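User: Second chain of the day. Same drill as before.
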Amino acid sequence: MADFKGGVRNEKILGPHGDRRYLTKVIRPPITRLQIAQFAAASDEFSPLNLDDEQAKNAGYHSVYAPGLMSLGFVEEALRAFASNMKIVALKGTFQRLIWPGDKLSAEGLLVRRYQKHDEARVLFTLWCENQHSEVVMRGSAIGIMFKNADEENRSRKTLPPISHKSHQALVDKCSTILDLAANNSSNKAAQTKELV
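Assistant: Same format as last time:
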């Protein structure tokens, strides 16, 4: 029987030794109202529907609910547990259901494809997050760049050569000159406007 989690037929995605490439399932303890408030503070998104029961009930919900981005954070955690030598370059998701206080979420994923792009080893994942009732609350995907070792990863981070102190100072001086000219031009225009009046 085929499994269609995340929109991908799992039986078709096999690793080099015939094993399936599932991410380690990350199971979170029940979501608390404190976690929801902390997440709102960390993301600087203070929606009253996430924090105030009365506002949520007035809007037609039975209580506050968690921001959907929490589930995306949980699948990111599963990705990082899958490979420590991977840089996530794209992560996206669509939120399917609301997450309520007390929900126990599990984040899962499946390696769908390995490919080369710009001489980089890339991997594509399909991801999903379920609640305790096995209902999908978030479905998404991610692309990661795999590194052979720490040296290769460090080389990828050095995209531009360092700038010399002399060049840096020349840029700072040029910026200061441009700002001074802009300030003088605006004060000259203000003086000309006063003369016309």
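The CA atoms of residues 163 and 169 lie 10 Å apart.

User: Great, on to the next one.
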